[in-house]
Amino acid sequence: MMFEITDALLCAILGILLAIYHQLGGIKMLQNCMIGSLNEVRGKLGLAPFRGGDVEG
Questions:
Q1: Please, which domain of life does this record's source organism belong to (predicted)?
Q2: Closest to 45 measured CA to CA, from 17, 2, 15
C-alpha cells in the first residue's frame, strides 16, 4: 500500500525544514514565504503561530 502524502504531513515536513534552517542561522526570505502558510495550518491544528522567524520549540 502506497503511503499517502497529506497536506498535514507535507506541512510538518516543511516545518521541520524551517526549524533546521532557523537553527543554521535562518534563510529569512524562505521563512517569510513559508510562515504564512505554516501559521494557517498550525492555527487549524490549534498550535501557536510562528512570529516573524521567532521559532519556539
A1: Archaea
A2: 15
Question: How far, CA to CA in Å, does 55 sit from each of 16, 17, 47, 48?
Answer: 11, 12, 12, 10
Answer left, alpha or beta for residue 34, where phi above 0 means left and psi between -120 and 50 means alpha.
alpha
pLDDT tens for 2-39 read: 567 688 888 888 888 878 877 776 566 566 666 777 77
**21 grid coordinates:** 534552517
Q: Where are the domains of the chain?
A: 7-43
Return d(Cα 29, Cα 47) in angstroms, integer: 23
